[in-house]
Amino acid sequence: MIGFKINSDIGNSRDSRDEDVLNSRQALSYLGYEDKNPDFVLVDSSLDKNIRSFQKSKGLKVDGFMSPGGETEEQVDKSLKVKILNDVSALIKERNKDNIKKWREYGGVAGAAVGGSVAAGRTAIFTGPLGFYAGREAGEKLYTFIDKLHTDELEKLKDRLEQETK
Fold first, then answer.
1. What are the extents of the domains in the chain?
2. DSSP letters spanning the chain
3. Quick check: 111 and 133 in contact, CB under 8 A?
4. Are the C-beta atoms of residues 115 and 126 closer than 8 Å to each other?
5. Is the pLDDT of residue 41 over 50?
6. How confident is the model at residue 164 (pLDDT cuts 50, 70, 90)?
7. Rounded distance, CA 41 to CA 66, Å?
């Protein structure tokens, strides 16, 4: 499961676990709430302000506290999933648009480095122009495969997030 979960109360005068404070800071920062002390493991005025701002923006009770299973935690979780889903969707679109050109450019260089033997399906090593062109074809196929693999993983992530945000 992808998402946000805390195991202790977060807020001033609470016994907050360090990892929960850090995760809260990172989650709110990813959602656009700037944190002056991103590595600080105690609740300070910056985190308190961010929790309150988030609560206000979501129409929640504004108290500066976040509890496991509470409304604020649930809204942070949901907001993160929606933002990640949007970011993944944009990344997939961008990758599909730009990568063919990039893979062609890099394919020749990478393929030439291995001498084109992958394209030929042999262990022989080609050098010079023959190696470059055979390597370009091999590199293009290899990088297209790698990009497709990564895009497939992103698509799976996108599908999971779409299910979790319904």
1. 18-69, 84-164
2. --S---SS-BSTTS---HHHHHHHHHHHHHTT---S-TT--S--HHHHHHHHHHHHHTT---SS-B-TTSHHHHHHHHHHHHHHHHHHHHHHHHHHHHHHHHHHHHHHHHHHHTTTHHHHTSS----HHHHHHHHHHHHHHHHHHHHHHHHHHHHHHHHHHHHHT-
3. no
4. yes
5. yes
6. confident
7. 15
Burial class (CB in 10 A: 0-12, 13-18, 19+), 151: middle
C-alpha to C-alpha distance for 69 and 51, rounded to whole angstroms: 15
pLDDT (tens digit per residue) in 74-83: 999 999 888 8
pLDDT digits (tens, 9 = 90+) for 112-131: 444 333 334 333 333 444 44
